[in-house]
Write a structure and sequence with these properties.
The structure is a homodimer. Chain A has a domain of 203 residues: Aldehyde Ferredoxin Oxidoreductase,  A, domain 1 (4-Layer Sandwich). Chain A has 23 helices and 17 strands. A 6-stranded mixed β-sheet of chain A has the order 2-1-6-3-4-5. In chain A, a hairpin with a 6-residue loop joins strand 4 and strand 5. In chain A, helix 11 packs parallel to helix 13 and helix 19 crosses helix 20. The longest helix of chain A is centred in the C-terminal third of the chain and has 21 residues.
């Protein structure tokens, strides 16, 4: 990972590539790399779909090595959804493969003059950029069939579906999993639209002949990595909850906490929660020959993913994530696990962010386009997005635009991005993260559900304003750093609760880079990344006024706790005063 | 005009009204009143369609008096289009009638719990607020037929069409003219959507039994008013150009200047300009029994409006304004005056801002929804808006949303509001106004076309950056003040060029209020109003970064002068440093 691949898609005569040394970006990985490049190179006031925007794809610092759980990849751009900086993070195979190929980043620049669609092939021998308009309009699944026919299924792919081609603000970038299925997505903030605006349909990564990236201190690395993996196995969340039921272990927990947004954030309890819980899904998966315990990429210890088969026992989609189950389940009043799985498949195929889409359909239901609980309508609406009808275009633009177009006031967004699966009134710490993260409403940016609900990393009353600022601040800093390493964020459960596992993580990274890493060093890195992001947003015109939840969260009490969001504006403004 | 009428549309048990003294708002009229109330009373971060927003309707300081040309009315709110403060200004009969009824403002507050639609009747005996759901869905013309049947045609009406009921960000508030037709509109920024969100379909104003508002010094007032009217008659623009050809006298002039935005701002010259010029329209109107010289309200000296009949000699619409002719003409590549008039009628009926809609259809044409020049498609698209189809909803949301939904980069908006009929590259002074006005892109906010093109109020090279900041600043200050008086902005031509006429205006106002008014006093008033507006916007999260034109105006040279927008960002930031 000592080089950067830049491809100018708008060069005269066709795409031009160059491979550069890391230069000033040395030491940056994942979100550190994407946010540094976007902040430094993209004019903050540019149109997100213009030639001036860039799409940066960066494996984590440890990706491509033998480090357990280090397969996350970051996609950065100026977001078509928020207008601010965006890092969207995904699992799948690409990060490890790109790391082994030696690229610390792929940067797509410029914009093709014509509307040709391109395939980029990267392997040990170099890079090819080929126009291939026969790929136009293909869903991610059909696209992978085509790629498999040409390149086999040992490669890893980064691609967009029809939504990205149509440059929809809810479009994701898809990454193939271990079965060469396009099930992992950098969904949030519309990076798929930026990839579409660059005219790139798919990037095929072939690491045949490449080796694992070697650590500077192999012995220390091996030992620390082993201890670290054991630490993950030992923690109740990463060792039991997530492997058994996936992220959807949360449906019952968050519903019990009264924080499961239901019918477009009108209640924190959903009567149908048990029918769509992780426990129910795991049983279904087992009974149909699927698998509730599976990794999304090689090197995964936690195994929080799974395989979901349909009623006939045929593969339908990966085990839907908790946020997807919430988005298309309780948020739309739907309690049918098969319907949710069908929509998950559809959205993976079209290349859409399931969180944004579920929130959007909730808003559309509030606008009267369908009734809450109407499964058929929900499926129909997602299909419309793929067809690119005017209604589909609206929905594919996300919850905020859908609310504007249909005159809806209750639209759960911050900075134009839809809130995920935790009501900020019943998990006030996550409300602070939603409000203040440079990314817009984003649970992963500072997952205060830990101390607010799960009792991980301490305990902070979720219904009170007290302690939430500090909680969110510390988590946002830590998360920015973790997102730079390639580590899956789920390691947080173990490192927050187990000081030894935290030290093991520091030792793994230290041994890999050949330089001792301290907790202070992690904090420093996180602050540096957040500073890049905050600086970009400020230059894009964001102020503290955009660090706010929509007004109705302060006015409408959420059942069953009948609580409003209580954190004061002036306190929100202290989150980044460190 | 010593009282304010407040109606809380969301009061328990139904709308509650109260009549208050002016209090702290004494001395404020028109835009001064609306911007003071919005700035003081509306939470800047509220949702524009929420109960917290207010709709303020305020006649000018002189409205209802015998002052010539004083019939303008201001409508203020937090804009659903821009998210900032909005004052949208209209002619028609209402201002004079409301002034004579003694109301300095009507303030609609709150939001009905149900979706009942209301009619408000205001006359000498008081105010009635009546639910009348039989009015739902009526176009403004059919609505006026209904009102006429109940109230005769001597009343004045303020109403919304279907677009306002659907809460579309491009929805206007309509005002009846002297013939009781709903042809005058507070169009910009979506005030019709806010009126719709308050559940108010129409306000009927009946000044039977009311007298002209008396000046403090009747003799001085009468004399000054007479001289002032003579001054208007004397100036070439207000005495000849506007009466003969209306505002559309500008099509040939602006086309000649190479500043007539054509085909979504890709050229400043339109080959079909002569076919849709004011000269052509005047001939058509005369030949069909219409009238090119007509006032929009009683007391108008300039008579820039007119009556447009169809091919059979039947009334179709008022003489389309220049900005409407541009919007649906050159901007969409259409050169058929009957098509433009037909769309003008449609939009008056639906209650839509013609500027926003023309710019929006230009963006839709760039997105490939229709070809530039396709008249039938343009008419069909406007009809879709009225039908509230998903496509119609998109278009009714304005150019910015339409661009986002269809992935278009070249979208001519500032602060979410579409640019009007003057390309900022060929009239750089108006570009400064577009960029910096608190209203979003708005030509009336500081009409630098005067010195840039018309040679009125001096001469500043339109293609150079030099002198534009000062020009726009002075015009924005003067305009804010004029918009508070009720005076039609067109008096600016005469008062800028004729010092005597300017003094006559000061004398009219001074004699009316019984207090000498100086040029410095006018400037002070204008600065005060702009400060209210800028302060609101700052609290709503606007920064200097929103005081910018879209990037492509700095990059794409506009034919025929092949010029880009040259005013530097740091200079734009000096506009309000007075």
């Amino acid at each position: 990972m000592d080089k950067i691949l830049r491809i100018d898609m708008g060069a005269a005569g066709g795409p031009q590539m160059k491979v550069e040394a890391l230069g000033g970006y040395a030491g940056m990985g994942g979100r550190g790399m994407t946010s540094a490049v976007i902040s430094k190179e993209v004019p903050p006031l540019c149109h997100p779909l213009s030639a001036e925007n860039k799409l940066v794809i960066a494996p984590g610092l440890l990706s491509g090595s033998a480090a357990a759980q280090s397969g996350r990849i970051s996609v950065g751009c100026k977001s078509p959804l928020t207008g601010g900086i965006k890092e969207s993070n995904s699992g799948g195979q690409a990060s490890q493969v790109l790391g082994r190929l030696g690229y610390a980043a792929i940067i797509l620049e410029g914009k093709p003059a014509k509307d040709d669609l391109y395939k980029i092939i990267i392997n040990q021998s170099g890079v090819q950029v080929l126009a291939d308009n026969s790929l136009k309009g293909l869903g991610n699944y059909a696209l992978m069939d085509r790629i498999k026919a040409d390149h086999g299924d040992k490669v890893a792919c980064i691609s967009i579906g029809p939504a990205g081609e149509m440059k929809m603000p809810a479009a994701s970038v898809a990454f193939t999993d271990m079965e060469f299925r396009p099930t992992r997505h950098a969904g949030r903030g519309g990076p798929g639209a930026v990839m579409g605006s660059k005219g790139v349909k798919v990037i095929v990564l072939d690491d045949a002949g490449c080796k694992l990236r070697p650590p500077k201190d192999p012995e220390k690395f091996k030992e620390a990595n082993k201890r670290f993996a054991q630490g993950l196995k030992k923690h109740a969340v990463t060792g039991q909850g997530l492997p058994s039921f996936g992220t959807n272990v949360l449906t019952n927990i968050i519903n019990e906490a009264g924080a499961l947004p239901t019918n477009n954030f009108t209640s924190g309890r959903f009567s149908g929660a048990a029918k769509i819980s992780g426990e129910t899904y795991a049983e279904l998966e087992k009974s149909r020959g699927g698998n509730p315990t599976h990794g999304c990429h090689r090197g995964c210890v936690i195994q929080c993913s799974g395989i979901f088969n349909d009623k006939n026992g045929n593969y339908l989609t990966k085990q839907p994530e908790y946020e997807t189950v919430w988005a298309h389940g309780s948020n739309c009043g739907i309690d049918d696990p098969d319907v949710i799985a069908q929509i998950d498949r559809l959205e993976d195929d079209l290349g859409l962010d399931t969180i944004e889409m579920g929130a959007t359909i909730g808003v559309a239901m509030e606008a009267g386009l369908a009734k809450f609980g109407d499964s058929e309508a929900a499926i129909r609406l997602v299909k419309e997005v793929g067809q690119g009808t005017p209604l589909g275009r609206i929905l594919g633009s996300g919850a905020e635009i859908t609310g504007k177009v249909f005159g809806v006031v209750r639209v759960p967004t911050v900075k134009g991005q839809a809130m995920p699966a935790y009501d900020p009134r019943a998990v006030q710490g996550i409300g602070v993260t939603y409000a203040t993260s440079p990314m817009g409403a984003d649970h992963t940016a500072g997952y205060a559900v830990t101390a607010n609900v799960l009792g991980v990393g301490g305990s902070v009353n979720p219904l009170s304003a007290e302690g939430q600022i500090e909680l969110s601040r510390n988590l946002q800093i830590a998360t920015a750093a973790i997102d730079a390493t390639g580590y899956c964020l789920f390691i947080a459960f173990a490192i927050l609760d187990q000081p030894d596992t935290f030290q093991d993580m520091l030792d793994v990274i230290g041994a890999f880079i050949g330089q001792e890493l301290t907790a202070a060093g992690v904090t420093e890195l996180g602050k540096k990344i957040l500073s890049f992001e905050r600086d970009f947003n400020a230059r894009a015109g964001f102020t503290s006024k955009q660090d706010r939840l929509p007004g109705y969260f302060k006015e409408e009490a959420l059942p069953p706790h009948n609580v409003v969001f209580k954190v004061a504006d002036q306190d929100l403004d202290q989150v980044f005063n460190w």
